[in-house]
Structures are given as C-alpha cells and as structure tokens.
Design a protein that fits this description.
The chain is built from nine helices and five strands; from the N terminus they run ααααβαβαβαβαβα. The protein has 263 residues and is an alpha/beta fold. The chain folds into two domains: 101 residues, no CATH class; 125 residues, Rossmann fold (3-Layer(aba) Sandwich), CATH 3.40.50. The protein has a five-stranded parallel sheet. The longest helix has 33 residues. The chain starts with a helix and ends with a helix. The relative contact order is 0.15. InterPro entries: Cell_Envelope_Assoc, DUF218.
C-alpha cells in the first residue's frame, strides 16, 4: 500500500508542468545533437511556448477557474451543521517557527475557514485531517492547535492523522458523518475532486470552498501583470494537478467497471 502511494506521488510529480516540459525541452536539445533538426526544434518550441503560456495570468486563471467555480462559497444559514471537515494540506512542522508559519498557504486558508464556521455553528464537531508525511507533527495536529488558539474548545475536535491523501481522508471521514449534515472545507480548485472522492466513499457533505486563486480585479490592470510570473505557473500547476487527479479517478473507475464485466 505504501509502495503504491509513493509510486502515485512520483508519477504525479513527474507529470506536472515544470518537470514534464523541462524533459521535453532537454529531449529536443538531445535530438538536435543527433542532428534530428526538425523534431528537436519542434520539441524545444513546444516546451518553451507552453511553459511561457502557463506562467501568464490569463492562462492560469482560465485553467483553474472552471474548477473553482463548480461549487459556490458556503453561506451561513439557520439550518444546523453537525460536522465541519477540514482536509489536510502540506506543512513543515518546525518548532522554531510560529504555529501558522508551519502551515502552507492552503492549510492556513482551510483551518481559518474551519474555525470561522465552527464559531458560526457552535454545536458542530471540527474533524481535522492530514498526516505527518515525514514531519514531526501532522497537519491535523497543527490544525487542532490553531483551532484551540482561536477559541475552539478541545472537546469539539476530532483529529485524523493517519489518512495520507484525499481518497483516504474521504474513506475515514465518511462513516463519521453518516446521516449527519456536514460541511467539507478544502481549496476551491481541489473541491471537485474532493467531492467526487467523498461520493465514491458513500458520503455527501456540503461544499465550503476556500483559498480561491482565480481572482479578477475590477480595476484596470497594468500591462506588466500580463508578463510571465512564477506565481502564475504555480497556479497553473495547481489546476494541472487537479485535472490529473480527476483523470486518475475516472481511469480507475473505468478499469474497475471493466474488471467487473470480465468476471
């Protein structure tokens, strides 16, 4: 199981834009050295032009906006909520740093929204996910410490530090929220895949997306904002990662269906 998890992580990382396009670029250079001029130039131009486009704001936003707009933000209402689920995110549990500095950007957004909604629904449990991943403490533990520091009673917290990814979190959380009204908090771009995985686990929480990336200002933007930037490449990578994950889930489903038909 651990080997499969690591293999999936390695494959997913290698198929992200930067390593994939760098590989194509170096392959193009190699072909040029072999005097395969046409193929080499095509690969070089393809890799460089794609990298350039992915690092621009319009392209990055066009990639991630369809994911982020799938589920609207949660509006606090009168109907009671019994559980608030916060999915894990990358963390670096360095005790020399302030607590919030040990969480990544996604983790800060997620737990902040979780605490906000926990104050809005004071009877709800706060179920926190995320494993350690080689760090000294899991993101679930760090989330819990943040929640307590921001006024949430420890008795309302349930920490799930074992699940390694969203699929495992969905399988672990689904039995806990059976027959209960639950909110699912994760990054807006990740929400479609998270909801798909929860549905596959037999759960139907309500979406409460946060950490939106495709933000468009109403003000006129200067032309230099259209230049390639690393943050836009990172935004494209987030979207690319989610599309890969959705594709992997779809492929797994098709393979399982096919296997059942052959029985």
């Amino acid at each position: 199981m651990e080997t499969m998890f690591l293999a999936k992580k390695w494959l997913g990382s290698l198929l992200l834009p930067l390593p994939l396009l760098l590989f194509l670029g170096f392959l193009g250079l190699f072909l040029l050295l072999l005097r395969q001029k046409r193929s080499g130039i095509v690969l070089l131009l393809l890799s460089l032009s794609t990298l350039l486009l992915l690092a621009t704001r319009p392209v990055a936003n066009a990639l991630i906006a369809p994911l982020e707009s799938r589920y609207p933000p949660h509006l606090i209402g009168a109907e009671p909520v019994q559980d608030i689920l916060v999915l894990g995110a990358a963390q670096v549990a360095d005790p020399r740093l302030p607590l919030l500095s040990q969480l990544g950007q996604a983790g800060i957004y997620r737990i902040a929204e979780g605490v906000r909604l926990a104050h809005a629904y004071p009877q709800a449990r706060l179920i926190l996910g995320g494993y350690a991943g080689g760090e000294g403490r899991s993101s679930a533990e760090l989330y819990g410490e943040v929640a307590v520091a921001l006024g949430i009673a420890p008795g309302r917290l349930l920490l799930l530090s074992e699940p390694k990814d969203t699929a495992e979190e969905a399988r672990a959380m689904a039995p806990l929220i059976a027959g209960r009204r639950a909110l699912l908090i994760t990054s807006a771009g990740h929400m479609p895949r998270a909801m798909t995985l929860f549905a596959a686990a037999g759960a139907a929480p309500l979406a409460a997306p946060v950490d939106h990336q495709a933000k468009e200002s109403n003000a006129a933007l200067p032309l230099y904002t259209y230049l390639p930037q690393a943050r836009y490449l990172w935004r494209s990578e987030l979207a690319w990662h989610e599309y890969l994950g959705l594709g992997w889930h779809w492929l797994n489903g098709r393979l399982l269906d096919r296997a059942q038909q052959l029985r």
